[in-house]
Amino acid sequence: MSKKVTIEGNFEKLDEIITELQGDKLTLEESFQKYEEGMKLVKSCSDAIDKVEKKLITISGGEEEN
Fold it and tell me: What is the mean pLDDT of residues 17-37?
């Protein structure tokens, strides 16, 4: 069974990574790996939010007015 990844789940994982990076138990190499994992999650969240924003613009009938 495949578990669906959600924006909320990604934010929770990012929070865990930030906590780990703020601690002093990781080696430098582990820190780089956690940083890379975190950046991938940030991109995934950003992409998902952009997708939702585009859907909302389509639903609302056009571009957002400033």
Answer: 96
Q: What is the Cα–Cα distance from 16 to 37, expressed in whole angstroms?
A: 11
Q: Are 38 and 32 in contact (CB under 8 A)?
A: no
Query: Residue 49: which of 16, 8, 4 has the closest Cα?
Result: 8
Q: Helix, strand, coil % (nearest 5) of the chain?
A: 75, 0, 25
pTM for the full model? 0.75
Residue for token pair 């389509």 = 58
